[in-house]
Amino acid sequence: MNNNLINITNEDFIYQLISQRIEGYLPKDLQEVYRVCDQIRFIATDCYFLHYSLYPFLRSKNDDEVLEEARKFLQSYISDERYQRIKMLTTLDDEMSLAYSVALAKAIIGKVLGMIRLEHENPFGNLKIYVSYALSSMVEGGEIPAVLDYATEYAEEMVKNANDVRELIGGKKAGKEEGTFKKVLDLAEHMLYVKFMRDIVSFSKRLFSHIPKATYILKKRGRFGDELSGYSLTKRADRALVRELALPDELFLKKLSGEGFLTKEKLSIAEGAYYILVDKSGSMVGEKTVWARSAALAIYRMASVKRRRYFLRFFDKKTHQLLSDPHDVVDAILKVQSNGGTDITNALKTAIRDLIERGLSDLTNTIVIITDGEDVVEDLSKDLKKANANLISVMIQGENETLKDISHSYMRAELSEVGGAKLLKIVEVT
Questions:
Q1: What is the structure's pLDDT at 267?
Q2: What are the C-alpha distances in Å from 144 to residues 1, 39, 63, 111?
Q3: Which residue positions in the chain have pLDDT lower than 70?
Q4: What's the pLDDT at 187?
Q5: Of 148, 211, 169, nearest to 332 (Cα)?
Q6: Engineering a disulfide at 371: which of 7, 80, 174, 279 sits with its beta carbon 3.0 to 4.6 angstroms away?
Q7: Quick one: pLDDT at residue 262?
Q8: Is the CB of residue 29 less than 8 Å from the CB of residue 83?
Q9: How confident is the model at residue 224, as a pLDDT?
Q10: Mind listing the pLDDT tens digit for each residue in 357-414?
Q11: pLDDT (0 to 100) of residue 242
């Protein structure tokens, strides 16, 4: 049995490797089907190379009846605009091509298992025989094109979602550590079924357009830093340039007793962290939470532009897990459910403590709280000063005078792209 591509075949090592990688991202029960059925493996792996390669070539005929039906479908599919559009995301992109193939395999296997379950209570009893019979029945009934059409549509949506999630995390440079791609796939699949998640991703992408590509970064001069600022004089020989120490004794002593030695002066970033507190209480639902979470994602993107650290906590009556890893941040923003009450004072105290404990109080920090809570907030002005933190408070459809009194900047949110852009402008200059 042969696959449907000419320029790479199922005998090639790289083809077999990709096939194994596809299997590795399938759920355990679907892996069993994938392993016993060459046709499904070949269709999924062929589609990886159809989408990854610049110039894939299909065979003119396949002797296997299932693969021949697949070949005919793919011949038509690669001439379609759908293929051309999705290929803009997958060409020479291993992750997106893999996402397509995994999704395609899941969809096909799901259809096959669905057919088997109609006649057998336990589809895994004689799996290889059942799968072979189901595929033969699909060929006889002319169902293969419809199954593949459904599977390709599902795979295309998965790739679009996976690409969006990857962009939220940080694009292709987001990191290759183990588990990252699986998280991307998981979020992409959730987005297929949860409108709330799609709304956040869509709105976040619009807000990203308001983030400057380059921005002013506050820096301070000192002995330490990543950039050379210039040179200054020092009386301390241990801080002098090496060449100063190599001077003749007479000149060395003259400098030591006089103006001093040349030393390097460095620049370090004086801006501390963006610390975002997002209200997840029961009242923060619908457009309120979509706007708040989209704004939190946009500030995360701004943090990377300004090279600032980023922390996120959701809060209700209590504060929840502190997040800073990009994958965890995006996962929480898209998945955490809104429920519970509100305690703004507790949330702010936690943020202040986090900044101080992490040694960031020597830098200028920005705390952004997004809430609709109207509970009385303690006067935390001294605590904010201790953490060297400016507080930006964003009220959604409400008013809180006690919060306003301790805020460096206070705004009532417009739940629109314009409102999001206004917040980003305030955050950028604070």
A1: 53
A2: 18, 12, 16, 10
A3: 171-178, 213-229, 266-271
A4: 92
A5: 169
A6: 279
A7: 81
A8: no
A9: 60
A10: 998 888 889 999 999 988 899 999 999 999 999 999 999 988 999 999 999 999 999 8
A11: 81
Query: CA-CA distance, 330 to 213, in Å (whole number)?
Result: 21
**Half-sphere exposure for 34 (CA within 13 Å, toward CB):** 26
- 192: closest CA among 40, 30, 334? 334
Q: Which helix (H) or strand (E) holds 407?
A: none
d(CA 421, CA 295): 9
Indicate the SS3 state at residue 355. helix
Extract the tokens encoding 63.
């002797």
Please tell me the distance from the alpha carbon of residue 122 to that of residue 66, in angstroms, as a whole number.
Answer: 24
Nearest to 68 by CA among 149, 142, 150, 133: 142
Specify the pLDDT at position 120. Answer: 79
Q: What percent of the chain has pLDDT over 70?
A: 92
Angle formed by the axes of helices 195-208 and 144-169, nearest 10°: 50
Residue for token pair 């025989």: 129
d(CA 194, CA 322): 25
- Bridge partners (DSSP) of residue 391 are 367
Closest CA to 238 of 256, 250, 225, 257: 256
C-alpha distances (whole Å) from 373 to each of 78, 290, 389, 396 are 53, 16, 21, 8
Diameter of the chain measured on Cα atoms:
100
Strands of 227-234's sheet, edge to edge? Answer: 219-222, 261-269, 227-234
Q: What is the pLDDT of residue 227?
A: 61
Q: What is the pTM of this model?
A: 0.79
Provide the CB-side half-sphere exposure for 315 (13 A, CA). Answer: 26
- What pLDDT does 228 receive? 65
CA atoms in the 13 A half-sphere facing the CB of 367: 32
> Which string of DSSP letters, residue by residue, matches 16-40?
HHHHHHHHHTS-HHHHHHHHH-HHH
* Rounded-to-integer distance, Cα 184 and Cα 170, Å: 12
Name which of 369, 362, 187 is nearest 270 in CA terms: 362
How much is the pLDDT for 306?
79
